[in-house]
Every structure is written in C-alpha cells, then in structure tokens.
UniProtKB/TrEMBL annotation:
It comes from the Bacteria. It comes from Oscillatoria acuminata PCC 6304. This is Uncharacterized protein.
Amino acid sequence: MVIQGNFYKLTISEIFCQIWRSGKITYLERWGLMSALLKDSLTPDEIDAINRLLHAVRRGWLRVEE
C-alpha cells in the first residue's frame, strides 16, 4: 500500500525502515500509519510490520516524538 501525504509518498515497508533506522517515530510517520490502518486495505505483511513497530515502542526499543 502506498501512503500519500502532502510531502511524501511512501509504502509501509519504507516507513518501517525509516522508523527502525532512526529509532523514533515522528508525527508524520504516525499519521501515515494511522491513515493506512483506517483505509483497511493492508496486506497481512503490512499489518505485521505495524504490529512490530508498536511492540518495539512498548518495549522501549523505539521512541515516539511529538
């Protein structure tokens, strides 16, 4: 799935890689993931990637930026 915003056009896997490399989730990345979830057209692999990110936040491996 491709997420479109005002400044970027990324896939879930690209967002996942950006977040994992930086160690943080920005507001725009959270917004992109949220809009993808609301469109309800994600593949099982994309849902798993988002679940992995949420698990990493809960464990403290990733931080959420305001």
